[in-house]
Amino acid sequence: MDGKRLEGRVAYVLGGGSDGPARPGEALPMGNGRAIALRLAAEGALVVVGDKDLGRAQATVDHLDGAGLAVEVDAADPESCVAAVRAAVEFGDRLDVVVCNVGVSGREPVKVQSLDDWELASDVNVRSHWLTAQAALVPMLEQGRGCFAFVGSTAGVFSSRRSLSYEATKAAQLAVMRHVAVRYADRGIRSNAVVLGNIDSALVRREFGDGNGDARAAVVPMRREGRPEEAAGAVAFLVSDDAGYVTGQSLLVDGGVSAAWPIPPIVSQ
């Protein structure tokens, strides 16, 4: 990276480890959170990486371009969410950027939606995000500036007919993003989301099969899955001064899926 748009800033990435198989030829399994942490560091930020597995967080930190800190955080535990933000502030003596990337998927449509699955999705996909934002707002408001980026999904905008809990909580996540944006816009706080489509991340390969990439790519007008690095590029833009007049927005990063109707055929005519 030639640009250092985030020089001197402290960033915290919730869900910055990676749990799943690596891509062919990839030494370090790449998920969205890990790619985001690496990109923010490459742009000059001091990065704190939070993950449920401290080893996965440390693996990300070990590959950062610059110093960083790994923290263990259980997104389903409210106290753990708040403690991780405090650790980030103590490490960097400020907090400029927060990326809420952590999430769990569900597999149950409405007819068989279980309470346990619903509650876990709500705790991780929504509650952890607003608790993290709530804790981070304290130092950000004292500084008079700060940026949030929420990593969402097209499932929060369009129904996949697959998982009620995932769709509902991803939609609620975007509501949290908008609330923060509007409530604190006049106090130097910006809040946006990247809404991801089919991304060839470690989590997707683990959850949906490492060999199903061609089938996932077939519904995308660009005829390929996105890369975690492309999601990271969108996040880096939104938290940089290049997006200084952008807040409350959901940036679709989906290869054109949301713009296409009907779903494009497998072979272009």
UniProtKB/TrEMBL annotation:
Look up keyword Oxidoreductase and say if it applies. yes
Q: Do you know which InterPro entries this protein is assigned to?
A: NAD(P)-bd_dom_sf, SDR_fam
Tell me the Pfam families matching this sequence: adh_short_C2
Which UniProt key words apply to this protein?
Oxidoreductase
Q: For this protein, what is any one GO molecular function term? A: oxidoreductase activity
User: Which superkingdom?
Assistant: Bacteria
Gene3D superfamilies in UniProt: NAD(P)-binding Rossmann-like Domain
Does this entry carry the keyword Membrane? no
Family, according to the entry, reads as follows: Belongs to the short-chain dehydrogenases/reductases (SDR) family.
By what name is this protein known?
NAD(P)-dependent dehydrogenase (Short-subunit alcohol dehydrogenase family)
What organism is listed for this UniProt entry?
Answer: Nocardioides soli
